[in-house]
Structures
1.
Amino acid sequence: MENHGIVCGARDIEEAEWFAENADSFCQVLLLAAGHGAPLQQVGRRSVKDFLAIRKAMGLPVDDAQPLYNTNRFNGYVMKKTGR
């Protein structure tokens, strides 16, 4: 499967699709951010909660039961944490 995309496993198809969408979005954002040449930093848990609150305020769906998968590594690259 090398160079052919991602493989997602989950409790059900909807959760696997959610993981795949998040992986796709993460990769797109990472590519755009890396193009600016500044060091990449991962947002903290508080910021993630703020982003979810904004989504809710806009009427966009947010599954409160969905755990926040938060990692500080990507493809061997260790991302720095922000202060928040």
2.
Amino acid sequence: MKEYRINIRFNPENEKDRMIVAYLNGLRETQNVSRNSFIIQAIYEKIVEGDRNAALIEQIRAVLQEELASASITTGPDARDEPETDFSFEVTEEDLEKSKGLLRSGLEVFG
């Protein structure tokens, strides 16, 4: 098979592109590996990782389906039939006077 070549262009105005270029330029010194072999390995791992993730998701689905098939789900009492709390309160004359005062002051804004 003939060697397959691909050209990649990086935009120097894009921060992500600049970061990748800097990383690729430092590969020889830091990891003693060529840019070409690094890119090939990264693409391969991305493909394999995608396959692994798909297989893992299918395994999780199968386990959940199996567990839920034998599960018994019940609900509590109907909230409409039995209120959880009883709200009762009293309004004092003082509260009423405060409310009337607030209402008057609010209406004064409209003339």
3.
Amino acid sequence: MNKEEQIIIGFRDIYNKLVWLNKFKMEDSLKGYTSSEVHCIEYISSNVDSNVTKLAESFYMTRGAISKLTKKMVEKGIIESYQKPDNKKEIYFRLTEQGNAINKIHEDLHDEFQARDKAVFEDITEAQFDSMLSFMEKYRRHLDTEIKKQGVNITNRNDLE
């Protein structure tokens, strides 16, 4: 196995372990909400004037799928739609009080998981961080280019998890 394969397998293994470790606590703390709903809440909380198009691009989903998701979320009372006075065509979303409460639980869980994993990062030098971040950004740009070749419009997802 070459080093490229080792890196890809390593990323996948780390991701799968993080998902497994975090899954039970997330599911227990956020009962009644799907992963898609929670991540949609997270996106809306940090992106002003979120709409179906922005959400679809961010999550690599169709606008139809996002429309279904946001409709369910409105029905659950975790987001609400609004329009701007100068643009009656576009519909935007914001969190309700309930949506903000869910987002707070989610943020607290992320803080807890980050604290759990802090020991791994304490001994990494700035140069090592910079090297890893540089590699990830280069790889991310490559994947963005490959996705665009498939005809999919994407946005920068650095603001998510």
4.
Amino acid sequence: MLPRLETRVNMMSSLFLGRMKRLTSDRSGNFAMISALMAPVLFAAGSLAIDYSGAAMERGQLQGATDSAALAAAAAMVATSPSTTAAAQSLAVDYVTGQMANYLSATKLAALKANTTAAVATTTDGGTKTYTVTVNAQYAYSLSGLAPFLGKNSVTVATKSQTSSQSESKNAMSMFLVLDRSGSMSWITDTVKSTTTKCQNYTADNWSSYPDLKTTKPCYVNKIAALKSAAGSLFDTLDKAEAADTTNTLIRTGAISFNDAAQTPQALAWGTTASRTYVTALPDYPTGGTDMTTPMQSAYTALMASSETTAQLQKNNSKFSRFIVLMTDGENTGNSSTWNKSLDTKTLATCTSARADGITIYTVAFMAPTNGQALLKSCAGTTANYFEADDMDELVAAFQAIGEKASERSVLLTQ
């Protein structure tokens, strides 16, 4: 009896253990349990991915808004009527919120405005001012209801943009005037000075009577007087450009006159006063032939001298433009009345060297003969810098145009 019972117990034990082994080896139930446990995590991860995609899209929109805001503020600083720094900064903040109003809720927009800043940094190099605008913007992007399951309630959407603009008066400048004071500059133009006053109206036909020509009326403006008026218009234009900068340290001018020899020059000095005085003092009835070689070389040497660079650097002008203004009513003759081609060759060699060294040359042929016109066209190097004047009005207009071109203000906007 006992052996049978023991046998039956052993059989039942073996059957139970076998069934338990099969149960524990069956993983179908485990998968279901794991899936049930992981489902919330998987849903939360998917939701978080969607949230991050939305945040990335809004960040792209915000980047475009801050880029545009920085550019607008930088442009405002160099506009015709420039903004103050505070106004430009306010403009940038308003620009960001205005752009994003199309995409954000009122709550997000308020948070964005509270966390948007703009700064304008200004640096000065002589006549050039650089404005660097930096815009920072951010707000909290709330995540969906399942994302907090992973410990994330929100992410920060943030961007930064920086743009620079420059306002410059075509750099600072050093300009040297090379002006004809030969005998033909005593000859009249067709501009009447006075119909009631008599004066010596010299022409090519009666020049041999100098200095004893009888006075006649009407009295005509002669070429040297027309030159003085024209130079005055140039100086006036430069003075206006200088006045536009509060430092008054942008423009240096010098002058030299010539007939068949170079006259004593006016050295380069700040402003136009000294040069204006020099031109005004030119004789009312000059004499002599025409030789441009030495005065052009003197102007070139003065502009390229290290002392001129030093003078500009003392006013913090690390870069400046150099100009020569050459005016004649004749052709190179030297101390004669006949054109001297070799003098043209020397003059042109100086012009070529000066342009190669970065000097801009403006030339004005005032009632000049063909050879004189040809030389001045070549000396300028480009027709844009060559002027022909056949009367006083055209001469004044030419000098004024040169002043405007030389002192032209420009705005460089970079992003």
